[in-house]
Design goal:
The protein is an alpha+beta fold. The protein contains 11 helices and 9 strands. A hairpin with a 2-residue loop joins strand 7 and strand 8.
Length: 254
């Protein structure tokens, strides 16, 4: 494993505050641990120190810098191996680098085809994926201000995507990242417009309006920045540094 990949892996794990044993065992050099921690342990914008307790630090950055975060959107399918790789190898490391600076706002959008004849959905990997998409959207809805929770949950779900949407898998990932399983279930089964199936249909319509069909597609300010498809990066190198640089430029240009 290349040193840069090892560093990204550890930085992402630190971002999520995962147990470090599994990540650390993959390091060939212990010195990388200190480097990764330095990257993810502090953030500052124009000399403003950023706290790591919820959204408080980010709001402080907004007041000091006067700039909104850059919208970053990941278009995914819950049972897609390319989405799993995209989240683990690109999205999480980028968040580990930039989240505490308040420079980006990440949103998941799920790809599928709404069926207006019956109010349902068609998903590439079947009905189980549709339910998985709904559950992950509910995690985002319920914990929107806490990306370490909802993104960690999506990461955990995708890491063993073949088990989606089995109750044991959902509950295990929810426990690992501190999500309320009962609230997730209530949201997923609700027929309210902003929950459950209707929430997924709205999400899928957004992807269709933008003509995005590939999981995983990452956009910055509404423009495609990187695609993971068929186990390969397309239109990008898959470099965390490249995506961080694009977000930084978009933020600075505001």
């Amino acid at each position: 494993m290349r040193a840069s990949s090892q560093l990204c892996l550890l930085a992402a794990a630190l971002f999520l505050r995962l147990p470090m044993a599994s990540a650390t065992t993959q390091l060939e050099a212990r010195g990388l641990e200190a480097q990764a921690f330095h990257i993810s342990s502090e953030g500052s914008v124009e000399g403003v120190s950023v706290e790591k307790n919820g959204m408080g630090g980010i709001e402080e950055v907004f007041r000091a810098a006067g700039k909104p975060p850059v919208p970053v959107e990941m278009f995914v399918m819950s049972k897609c191996p390319d989405a799993r790789d995209c989240v683990a190898k690109l999205v999480l490391p980028v968040m580990a680098r930039l989240y505490d600076t308040g420079k980006l706002a990440l949103q998941p959008t799920f790809i599928g085809t709404p069926d207006d004849s019956n109010g349902g959905m068609a998903c590439m990997h079947g009905p189980d994926e549709c339910l998985g998409n709904i559950i992950e959207l509910c995690a985002y809805k319920l914990y929107k201000s806490e990306p370490k929770r909802w993104l960690g949950f999506i990461y955990c779900m995708g890491n063993n995507y073949r088990e989606i949407p089995k109750d044991e898998h959902v509950a295990s990932c929810a426990r690992e990242f501190g999500l309320n399983v009962e609230l997730l279930g209530q949201c997923a089964s609700s027929d309210e417009m902003d929950q459950g199936m209707e929430m997924l249909r709205t999400s899928a319509r957004r992807a269709m309006q933008l003509r995005i069909k590939t999981s995983c597609t990452l956009t910055i300010n509404g423009k495609t920045a990187c695609v993971r498809d068929g186990g390969a990066w397309k239109g990008c190198s898959g470099s965390v540094d490249d995506i961080v640089e694009q977000i930084q430029k978009a933020y600075d240009s505001q």
